Amino acid sequence: MRMAPGTKLDAVQHTNVAFEVDEIDRHTRSGWSVLVRGLAEEVTPAHREELVAHTKGTGLTTWAPGEHGHWVRLIPQAISGRRIVPGELPPPFENAAYL
Q1: Is residue 71 a contact partner of residue 43, using CB atoms and an 8 Å limit?
Q2: Sign, CA torsion 64/67/70/71
Q3: Which of these, 54, 87, 99, lies nearest to 73 by C-alpha position?
């Protein structure tokens, strides 16, 4: 993760954190959720160049604008997730009888 200096960066130094990613497809009423729990630490300048090169090599782009010059990595301690499949969700709101 990229961060600007400040309270968020200060708060994550060697702290247990959680990072969650979800995806929902409203048309198929399916999706997934993944939760990673672990230790956060700022990447030291000695390792930053290697990490930045590896990260940029993935082809991923950031959504957040700006140059956030500090890098924080998450050292996973536990990973969990689930897939959401049709039939496990309640009826869509627009079809509810109380509308």
Answers
A1: yes
A2: positive
A3: 54
* Within a domain: 96: no
Q: Is residue 97 part of a domain?
A: no
Rounded Cα gap, residues 18 and 38, in angstroms: 6
Tell me, yes or no, whether 57 lies in a domain.
yes
User: CA nearest 4: which of 68, 52, 48, 63?
Assistant: 68
- How many structural domains is the chain composed of? 1
Supply the range of the domain harboring residue 57: 2-89
Model confidence, pTM: 0.67
The encoded tokens of residue 76 equal 């996973």
**pLDDT, tens digit, 9 for 90 and up, residues 30-87:** 899 999 999 998 887 777 788 778 877 888 777 777 777 788 888 999 999 999 887 6
CA 35/CA 21 separation, integer angstroms: 7
Q: Would residue 8 count as lying in a domain?
A: yes
